[in-house]
Design a protein that fits this description.
Elements: H1 2-28, E1 52-57, E2 64-73, E3 80-88, E4 95-101, E5 111-115, E6 121-123, E7 125-129, E8 132-139, H2 141-149, E9 152-158, E10 164-170, H3 174-179
Antiparallel strand pairs: 1-2, 2-3, 3-4, 4-8, 5-6, 5-9, 7-8, 9-10
Length: 181
């Protein structure tokens, strides 16, 4: 027991001496900021990747069902923040939009999408699973035209605590990818 107290006393004494000298050094040697070395803050998301186009044949069909996808990932963790899929099923009259959202979304609120500074369109959140929440809706002619001409697709949703989150997806290469559907 006595050895334990001696060890504890020694550790505290060392921490006091080491901490005191470090504190004294920090008071006397304050580094001056170097404006040339200052770097802008890194964005929280990874740079946009090109839209990818995937096509597959459904069972019993000869025509292909195709979709194009753009995803945004958190730079620090690599986790997916959002994926936007535009799909055109063979023989379907409408082009569909699917937003794959993260966990913690207020499902009843739905999501919103808008291009650049245009008007927002509500997209209902249909379901959620172990991978996140999914908002699905039709792409009307006006939205499709905006997507082809725009530079940024904005998406918004509310978290369970009511905080509004806006995520942006680049539309660079959208028209080229859409022409392959």
């Amino acid at each position: 027991m006595r050895v334990c107290y001696l060890f504890l006393f020694g550790a505290l004494a060392w921490a006091f001496v080491a901490g005191g000298s470090a504190f004294a050094q920090s008071k006397t040697a304050t580094p001056k900021p170097n404006p040339a070395a200052a770097k802008p803050a890194e964005p929280a998301t990874a740079p946009a990747q090109p839209w990818s186009v995937n096509c597959a044949a459904s069972a019993g069909k000869t025509e292909l069902d195709c979709s194009m996808v753009q995803s945004v990932f958190a730079r620090a963790s690599g986790l997916r923040l959002i994926s936007v899929a535009i799909s055109k099923a063979a023989g379907a009259p409408n082009t569909r939009l699917q937003l794959s959202l993260p966990h913690g979304v207020a499902l009843q609120q739905g999501a919103e999408v808008w291009v650049d500074k245009g008007a927002a369109k509500k997209v209902p959140i249909r379901n959620a699973d172990a991978n996140g929440s999914y908002a699905i809706g039709d792409v009307d002619a006006e939205l499709l035209d905006s997507l082809k001409k725009g530079s940024m697709l904005n998406t918004a949703f509310k978290t369970l605590d009511g905080k509004r989150i806006v995520l942006q997806v680049s539309l660079n290469g959208f028209t080229t990818a859409y022409s392959k559907l």
